[in-house]
Automatic annotation (TrEMBL):
Keywords: Glycoprotein, Signal. Belongs to the multicopper oxidase family. One of its GO terms (molecular function) is oxidoreductase activity. InterPro entries: Cu-oxidase-like_N (IPR011707), Cu-oxidase_2nd (IPR001117), Cu-oxidase_C (IPR011706), Cu-oxidase_fam (IPR045087), Cupredoxin (IPR008972), CuRO_1_AAO-like (IPR034273). Residues 33-146, 159-296, 377-514 form the Plastocyanin-like domain. Residues 1-22 form the signal peptide. This is L-ascorbate oxidase homolog. It holds the Pfam family Cu-oxidase.
Length: 542
């Protein structure tokens, strides 16, 4: 009788699993992660390569595809990959950060099983541990619409990825030691486009045709401005949202953000600069790639086109101009605007304030006075096995405390499944902040200077603001978002400035459902790595 019940349970489990994933294609990917010599700024460095490539190979998927990604770690350090913007619906087990996953030990492997459920757009993956991001290991994720879902622009003649960001000539472990010693990073040494320095990468186009450029800021410390000499940028997508198709001559992209432009090769056939430069920095770093017309007989020429540098007002105006295309279909056939986010009243307001305290004489960064320290066991694993003492709910306040005191804590904030919350990011520092929330897309309803108050809501865009997963907060300013907590799990909320993230400007949000149902959250993966206080335990039989 017992065997019959077990077989029946297994059968039901398989049916439930296949009901979620079985009708959608599976894509199998194998990655070998190694060290290798790279020369992005003309100096030999130890880079992190994926299948011998820097940047790593693209991931191409269609909405709802299942991705089976086997990662073999040939480094001499533990390693994890995370997926910036992939929402991991009901599945924070696959998020690939220290709060959800045990690291892949040297010489070992782990297979991620994730689904790009109800998503389209431009994202990227990156290594999340030990400041590995400063050595590479990142690559593009492109999620295409299903064939029968209309897209609000003609099919482009080509699809280009631009992974741009600041870079250091020092190896990642040297930068890590600098941070561990209580110091901040120096100013970057340069910028890269697709892992190359000045004019090191070429995009070839045919005259008269239109191309999609997917641009991500994969840097460590600075916002960038992107532009193409003599050409217009028509914005069409931001982190999985189709936008109104406004046209720009240059565009600010903050740390961790991704967006797509249509660019028409409508100029005299020759070569043109593709430019990325730092924003909001006194010293401006610039790098270029080349837009090459296929019938060009002339190389790049003339001065590199300029762009705003430290001016904040143009960037704020540009950010406010990004609007949701209400009539376009997203990953599903129904129009994006059928979700009326502005008609829902948030159940509560959370305010998050960043700071740069010194604790025990060392530079740290904090959220609401709490500087995050990783636990010895991933929070998600500890929560599943009910291991006491790893973290405490409520270990970070939901509102900034008075005073300037800061302290260390493995900070976890409690939230309930299906809450609808307002989150205000308050920035009293003199630098632009960039915030990312794993597992979610949120609506950026407002941003302005000074102190947020309830009266600030009168300026909110409650009709057609864009939904995205990473937002900027300008100096001495605030940004407000609305977010539906419809994804059960433990999710990382972090600064995309990688030094600030590493030194504590992050925490985890535990979105809890008491139902304990696969309808709300998938079970622990059978192959989940167990470490810390979970070592020696078992996941599940099937």
């Amino acid at each position: 009788m017992g065997d019959s019940k077990l077989i029946l349970c297994c059968f039901i489990a398989c049916i439930l699993f296949l009901g979620v994933n079985g009708e959608n294609p599976y894509r199998y990917i194998t990655w070998k992660v190694t060290y290798g010599d790279i020369y992005p700024l003309g100096v030999k460095q130890q880079g992190i390569l994926i299948n011998g490539q820097f940047p790593g190979p693209h991931i191409d998927a269609v909405t709802n595809d299942n991705l089976i990604i086997s990662v073999y770690n040939y480094l001499n350090e533990p390693f994890l990959i995370s997926w910036n913007g992939v929402q991991q619906r009901r599945n924070s087990w696959q998020d690939g950060v220290s709060g959800t996953n045990c690291p892949i030990r040297p010489g070992k492997n782990f297979t991620y099983v994730l689904q790009v459920k109800d998503q389209i757009g431009s994202f990227y993956y990156f290594p999340s541990l030990l400041f590995h991001k400063a050595a590479g290991g990142y690559g593009a994720i492109r999620i295409w619409s299903r064939p029968k879902i209309p897209v609000p622009f003609p099919s482009p003649a080509g699809d280009f990825t631009v992974l741009a960001g600041d870079w250091y000539k020092r190896n990642h472990y040297v930068l890590r030691r600098l941070l561990d010693s209580g110091h901040n990073l120096p100013f970057p040494d340069g910028l890269l486009i697709n892992g190359r320095g000045w004019n090191g990468y070429t995009f070839t186009v045919d005259p008269g045709r239109t191309y999609r450029f997917r641009v991500s800021n994969v840097g460590l410390t600075t916002s960038i401005n992107f532009r193409i000499q003599g050409h217009k940028l028509k914005l069409i997508e931001v982190e999985g949202s189709h936008t109104l198709q406004n046209t720009y001559t240059s565009f600010d992209i903050h740390l961790g953000q991704s967006c797509s432009f249509l660019v028409t090769a409508d100029q005299i056939p020759e070569d043109y600069y593709v430019v990325a430069s730092t924003r909001f920095t006194r010293r401006v770093l610039t790098t270029t790639a080349v837009l090459h017309y296929s019938n060009s007989k002339r190389g790049v020429s003339g001065p590199v086109p300029g762009a705003p540098t430290i001016q904040i007002a143009p960037s704020v105006m540009q950010a406010r101009s990004i609007r949701w295309n209400l009539t376009a279909s997203g990953p599903r056939p129904n129009p994006q605007g059928s979700y009326h986010y502005g008609l829902i009243t948030p159940s509560r307001t959370i305010m998050l304030s960043n700071s740069a305290p010194y604790i025990n004489g060392k530079q740290r960064y904090a959220v609401n006075g709490v500087s995050y320290v990783p636990a010895d066991t991933p929070l998600k694993i500890a929560d599943y096995f009910k291991i006491p003492g790893v973290f405490n709910l409520g270990s970070i306040p939901t509102w900034p405390p008075s005073g300037n005191n800061a302290y260390f804590q493995t900070s976890v904030m409690a939230a309930n499944f299906r809450e609808y919350v307002e989150i205000v990011f308050q920035n009293w520092e003199d630098t632009v902040q960039s915030w990312h929330i794993d597992g979610y897309s949120f609506f950026v309803v407002g941003m302005n200077g000074g102190q947020w108050t309830p009266a600030s809501r009168s300026s909110y865009n409650l009709r057609d603001t864009v939904a995205r997963c990473t937002t900027q907060v300008y100096p001495r300013s605030w940004t407000a978002i609305y977010m539906a907590l419809d994804n059960v799990g433990i999710w990382n909320i972090r600064s995309e400035n990688w030094a600030r993230q590493y030194l504590g400007q992050q925490f985890y949000l535990r979105v809890y459902s008491p139902a304990n149902s696969w309808r709300d959250e998938l079970p622990i993966p059978k192959n989940a790595l167990l470490c810390g206080r979970a070592r020696g335990r078992h996941t599940r039989p099937f």
